[in-house]
Amino acid sequence: MPRALEREEGSWAWAVLLASLLNQGLTLGFPTCAGIFFTELQHDFQASNSETSWFPSILTAVLHAGGPLCSILVGHFGCRSTVMLGGVLAGLGMVTSSFSRTLSQLYITAGLITGLGMCFSFQSSITVLGFYFTRRRVLANALASVGVSLGIMLWPLLSRYLLEDLGWRGSFLIFGGVLLHCCVCGAIMRPVATTVAPETREGPPPPLKTPAPGSLAACSRIIQRHLAFDILRHNPGYRVYTLGVMWMILGFPLPHVFLVPYAVRHGVDEHRAALLISIIGFSNVFLRPVAGLVAGQRKFASHRKYLFILAVLLNGLTNLVCAASADFRVLVAYCLAYSVSMSGIGALLFQVLMDIVPMDRFSSALGLFTILESVSILIAPPMAGFLVDATGSFSYVFYMSGFFLISAALFMGGSFCALQKKEKQGRPAEAEGAITEAAAEWCLTLEGTDGSDKRLCPKIMYVTSV
Predict the structure, then answer these.
(1) Less CB within 10 Å around the terminal CB: N or C of the chain?
(2) Model's pTM, two decimal places?
(3) What is the Cα Rg of the chain in Å?
């Protein structure tokens, strides 16, 4: 019996939007609760700060790095099946992690398996919105991103409540059941009836000029499709942005991991310390859509990358304020200021990439971008944990975070200004060449029907853009 297909922009599209919102809250919002369990895991496994911080770093890195593999699964099995597969993996990883006896087992279960499952669920739920929404796609993505803020707000509160009653093992067991709700969200994402006809081939593809083994050729095609190394080589804007974001990520996720232990170390009550992360999430519920609407204005279209750089710079400066004082009122003010800059970074991170890279190569550029970004996510928390072990103070973590963010903002700002200046200097030369070529054409003559030469009439042309 054939399956019934849903229509684009139909009434069921809003149910899919709600499912995508919940899915983002369950997946992207989850890593922020790792800081709630940081001290408990450290005491239970008798581990150092550096060893314990590998758990959230592996989880978040795999969550971002699995994009190319997720796109392959979506191409073969569809978004619905991939989301449900991700929900099963995420739930299974958290359930098995509750029986972990060593940190290495926790890295594999709660880090690798859960992170991979969250990646499948999150990225597939974003992809399906592109099929359901065409005219309202920007609005749909903005509304779905609110789920991340809700997750950041609710996951720490739930974690603190479960940790007191059940411990970290019982909490992880409950989390496994909660993450299985990604399967319910995936079941709502029915296939869409598209109007685009499938590709047809007139015949077999032409043979390659250089013969290669089948497996090697298939791997090269997959790499070329999902990882844009050619854009990284030939597009200086993409190269600057990718390197700048990689450097920025070395400091950006650190407050989510170390803010709660930092507050507890300085005498803040554990409940109030967990509330700090929820303040960031609650503020982002309102600030992130506003930041997206402001960045979407046409008058800011050519200045989005500079708005992003400004948000990164402000984020680094606020971390320096947090390192100066651990008073609860100062930390609340820090969370509010951090939320403003964080919402700007979240709203503009991929929008700036769209402005730099052609849309027909955006998916492959995004795949390479997220993999390189995940490398920084993987090593940043262990580096900060090693710094805490060496110095005995969490304040240096926020100094480290501020250093990476401020230096990344200065690097991207200076590089983009230099590229823009170089582009402006190249325009007069191109315009002069175009005028010289046009002047040479004035001397051309046409042979008339009566044998007489006819000179072309010069036509005045104003070059407004090259």
Answers:
(1) N
(2) 0.73
(3) 26
